[in-house]
Specification:
single chain; alpha/beta; Rossmann fold; six-stranded parallel β-sheet; elongated; binds flavin mononucleotide; membrane; transmembrane helix; flavin adenine dinucleotide binding
Length: 227
Amino acid sequence: MPSKVLFLYGTETNTAERAAGHLVKQLKSSLKGVEIDGPTAGNKMTDFEEISKYDAVLIATSSYGDGDAPSSFDKFFEQLHREVKKAKEDGSKPLANLQHAVLGFGSTSYETFMNCPRITDKLFGELGSRRMQERVEVDEIGEESEEELIDKFETAIKECLGDLGKNKGKKEACSWDKPDGEILDKSHIIEEGGGEKKSGPGMVGVLAIVAVFAGMYFMKMKKDEEE
Ligand SMILES: Cc1cc2nc3c(=O)[nH]c(=O)nc-3n(C[C@H](O)[C@H](O)[C@H](O)COP(=O)(O)O)c2cc1C
């Protein structure tokens, strides 16, 4: 039976989507005995029971905002956090039969460089998936070109996909913090109400401030009229 591989992407301005399309084409034309689904936007595949049926998942995603997921990947990213929370609570490893690899897109001009790809890689590991190769990180202002790094990912991934059966159940190729493990935790995205807590006066506070200033203005007007 052929191995089943799913290619997911997360993108805002199409860089990761373009790379995913290119890689799927290359892999399909050069690998035998491997069936590849996708590329599919992460948000269109948030059912982790479905994902667990694949032999391998490849993910190409960027980071946006404050190290957040891009808009075609945010629902997937949230669901990934929910799956990890659930797995920690019941001690399960729902992706134990899976192997995965991540190709990240970002820029070192942001403090939260590669936050979404790094967290995605880490959390797949926490769900039991075997990391089959070190994450490749494409820095848009880095020395190595995007093309070179995509080729590097492609070469490594071809080897891994050829050895999927042989490597199943083996120790991961490396830990998630390679080539770098600096992240900004985003687990608050699944808290009640979602998103970050906003500080500030809120709507009631704003109305109260407006009322105070309006009162002061009318009192001044009245005083000026009396003088
Ligand atoms: C508003 C904005 C926020 C960004 N935030 C991050 C970030 O937190 N971390 C990062 O590594 N890159 C960040 N980037 C860079 C993008 O991830 C990078 O341009 C990437 O190549 C875009 O890939 P995409 O077109 O697939 O979305 C940001 C870019 C913009 C415009």
